[in-house]
Amino acid sequence: MKLYLGIDLGSTTSKAIIVDEKGTIIGRGITNTRANYETAAEIARMEAEYNSRFSLLLHSINKVGGSSDELHSIINQVEVAFQYLQFHKRYQILHDNMRTTVEEKQRRQIKHILNDELDKVFKKIETDIRSEFLAGTVSTSTQFFRDIFSAHYMHEIESLEQSLFDDLVSIYEVSILSVENQVVSFDFSELVMNAVDLVVDNKNGKLDKFKSGVDAVASLDLAPADYIGTGYGRQLLPFEEKHIKSEILCHAFGAHNFFPKTRTVLDIGGQDTKAIQVDGHGLVTSFQMNDRCAAGCGRYLGYIADELSLSVSELGPMALECDYETNICSTCTVFAGAELRENLNLGEKRENILAGLHKAIVMRAFSLLARSGGVRNEFTFTGGVARNPAVVKYVSQMVKENYGDLTINIHPDSIFMGALGAALLSKNRRD
Amino acid sequence: MNTTFKSMPNQASLQVQKENSMVKQKQMLSQHFMELSQVKETGKKVVYTFVPGNLIELILSFDMLPVYPEINALQSGMRKKSRDYIRSAEDAGYSEDVCAYVKCDIGMMLSGNIGPTGQQLPSPDLLLLSYTGCFVFMKWFENLQRLYNGVPIAMLHIPYQVNGGIESNMVEYVKNQLKTEVIPKLEQVSGKKFDATRLRQMMNLSSNAEDLMVKVFESAKHTPSPIDAYFGGVYYVGPIFTAFRGTDGCVDYYQELLSEVEERIDAGQGPISPEGAIDEKYRLVVEGPPNWTHFREFWKIFYDLGAVFVASSYTRVGGVYDEGFRHSAQDPLGSLAKYCMGCYTNLSLPMRIDMLARLLKEYKADGLLINSIKSCNSFSAGQLVIMRELENRLGIPVGFIESDLVDPRYYSYSNIKNRLDSFFQMLDQRKMFAVT
After folding, report:
1. Beta strand A25-31 with A226-230: parallel, antiparallel or unpaired?
2. How far is B278 from chain A (nearest CA, A)?
3. Greater confidence, A354 or A208?
4. A425 chain-B contacts, CB cut-off 8 A
5. Cβ–Cβ gap B3/A289 under 8 Å
6. How far apart are CA B141 and CA B111, in angstroms?
7. Which of B5, B384, B430 faces A283 most closely, judged by CB atoms?
8. What is the least distance, in Å, from the CA of A196 to any CA of chain B?
9. Residue A200 has pLDDT above 80, yes or no
10. Burial (0-12, 13-18, 19+ Cβ within 10 Å), A254
11. Which one of A70, A109, B49, B247 has the lowest number of neighbouring Cβ atoms within 10 Å?
12. Which residues of A touch B417 (CB under 8 A)?
């Protein structure tokens, strides 16, 4: 079996996709680490590799005729438990880091108070998160360790008195970075069997076949036959020139793979927006990207989320609750933040302001689209921001208003489009 | 975002290769600046004027010396002085949005008017505005008039080729202004009578040099092209577009240049970059001026990849010659009028599109690059329309980058490199697809 790896190093997240000879996706990995791009690529690749082993496991069990709904459901549960164990490992590292931070940075008289508080909080979070994972209510495809952990952590410490709260927040902020930036490797079969123990009772040996499948999959060599790196940080990868491709081509090719009738691709990423025109073969005919200002990109939403103390994933759904869109004049992210506060002070509903901000982003993206040659049928929207329902709403609205009733494609894997295009280009390579 | 790239050139380590024609041009320029520095002794009068559609033969026929403020600005850009000059112009109240050539020039004057050779430039005795297609030129000279209190201005109003050509009434209109406005001012400032015979002789020399220059640029139709018509081209147009058209030296220069080019054709050799001969892999046409503050670094992105510019609109900014125009001894004033109206930015948008389409076809180019310049509306306005139209008409890939003439704040290596990477990979995809 030949595998191909695509890595997309974005400004906010790094993504990896592994495809087989047929171009079918068998593994996805994503990380938000802000470490150097080499580490980010390695973390994303490892995630994709673990994910691939699970797909191959499922596949091999299907093949030997062991397929049953029960087994499928077990494998899915095991994968979730596996993710939990990965989470748990980082959780332990974080706890150790925070203890070290307390030791190094805090006054002696309050060290034990902080450590006691941390032990208490960590214990509570461990129980809560474990049950959330096993109940399947945590989505690791849309959230990172930081998101999951910090939501719980803030919740646990918010009722503490101010100075203790401040100390705990700063200890967390100092300690989290190195956790995110660390490559944590696991023994796949050991971790899987631990995961199995968490979710199923194997006393009567009904999982023996499963166990041998795990061992077989764990020993598979998943080294890619070829690979391509793309994205914002591609030039910083320790890859040879031929393993590096522009993200414009990769996004276009990824979009073409899912929707071959695509003629216009809009990709809104963390800090760049790309408007790409493609032909029937998935080849780029023209493109425009922002490079003076990132006000129409994902980071803008990140900034607004920070201003409102919300997580980015809450913004879109909240904006959908608007009565109307507040008019936002500023084209600059920082000024838009000021405008946001001003409107709040004037008593404007948060939902309406958010709707206005979302609309403002989309308007910027549309001016880029106009520069690149407009929107042609079919239109595919990709990038991390395509997960935001309010952005999707305004994109659909503006396509209709400006270009008529076109087919609009948004794939659940839209954030992986660049990585997928890279993997497919490496598979199709002729040079 | 400040990103360091492995391929970032180290300016100091580059071995510069110089051709004879380059040495000759340098001598011509230093002689010119020497003369400018000696006007107090020689009593020669100095005319500040602009490159597009300039009247250099007329100026020289009165024994006056030209100074081109936009050439000084681009030289300051290349010598990394423009940032400080622009800053001092902004300190003096010029907005960030004002053309960087203007600010660089004004800043240079405010800082003592030291020219590219380190010698002080003389103040103008006359400001000769012979191209009004660029509105900024008019404002620029209004400001210079304030700076050089009371210096006379001669202004030639140039009609735009709005209907797609030069009409006879337009020629009469400009000729009439030459007779009633420009020549009398030149006579008055120089204290000499207009010498029609001398002008006719100069017109002949101009025309000879122009024939040679067209041959040089048309050599790029060869594969591989012996010249880079953009990064090399900006040097090749130097003598004709500035102080030397209508002189023997100018004809000699183009003769020398043409023989070098012909040698390269015979040897099957590509153009010479600062790091040696370029092995041609891509043939491109380019629209828009280059960036001057990072000229070498910008060029290196292309020659490292074997990308050669076979034609450019910028080398037609002084005047368009390859469609048949020549200065004429039979009709000196009429041909000067046509020259003023015929420079590239004075062509209507459809004419510019037709010209670029012709260049792309005749020079067998793989694609078009557009360098959209923040400072220059004359060039940049309409470039998206040009791009769209050429994509549709010819189905060729077009790359679009943004920078500035001499304001280094608007040149971002990583953004430009990022877009160009995509552009070149787009070209590769097309080529590979065409093969299979």
Report:
1. unpaired
2. 20
3. A354
4. none
5. no
6. 18
7. B430
8. 45
9. no
10. buried
11. A109
12. 235
Counting one residue from A and one from B, how many pairs have CB atoms under 8 Å apart?
Answer: 51
Q: Phi/psi class of residue A282: alpha, beta or left (left: φ > 0; alpha: ψ in -120 to 50)?
A: left
* Strand pairing report for A284-289 and A408-409: unpaired
**Over the stretch A318-355, which tens digit does the pLDDT of each residue have?**
999 999 999 987 777 778 888 889 999 999 999 999 99
Query: Are A235 and B415 inside 8 Å of each other by CB?
Result: no
Task: Tell me the CB-side half-sphere exposure of residue B406, using CA atoms within 13 A.
Answer: 30
**Does B16 have pLDDT greater than 80?**
no
Of A236, A246, A292, the CB nearest to B425: A246
- Do A291 and B421 count as a contact with CB atoms less than 8 A apart? no
B15, B274 in Cβ contact below 8 A? yes
pLDDT surpassing 60 at residue A173: yes
Q: Which of A277, A289, A281, A256 is nearest to A411 (CA)?
A: A256
Burial of A149 (0-12, 13-18, 19+ CB in 10 A): buried
pLDDT for residue A67: 58
pLDDT of residue A195: 87
Give one DSSP letter per residue of A97-152, joined into a string.
HHHHHHHHHS-HHHHHHHHHHHHHHHHHHHHHHHHHHHTT---TTT--HHHHHHHH
Judging contacts by C-beta atoms under 8 Å, the chain B residues touching residue A246 are: 418, 421-422, 425
Tens of pLDDT, residues B51-76: 999 999 999 999 999 999 999 999 99
Residue whose C-alpha is closest to residue A362's, from A291, A313, A305, A300: A300
Contact at CB, B419 and A289, closer than 8 angstroms: yes
Query: Looking at residues B25-53, what average pLDDT do you find?
Result: 95
pTM (two decimals)? 0.85
Q: Do B436 and A430 touch (CB under 8 A)?
A: yes
- As a whole number, mean pLDDT of residues B370-395 equals 92
Nearest C-alpha neighbor of B56 from the set B38, B68, B73, B43:
B68
Contact B418 A246 (CB under 8 A): yes
Share of chain B above pLDDT 90, in %: 88
Q: Which domains does chain A have, with CATH numbers?
A: 1-64+213-259+415-431 (3.30.420.40), 82-180 (no CATH), 260-410 (3.30.420.40)
Closest-CA distance of chain B to residue A278, Å: 11
How far away is chain A from the Cα of B368, in angstroms, using its nearest Cα?
A: 11
- Distance between CA atoms of residues B392 and A66, nearest Å: 56
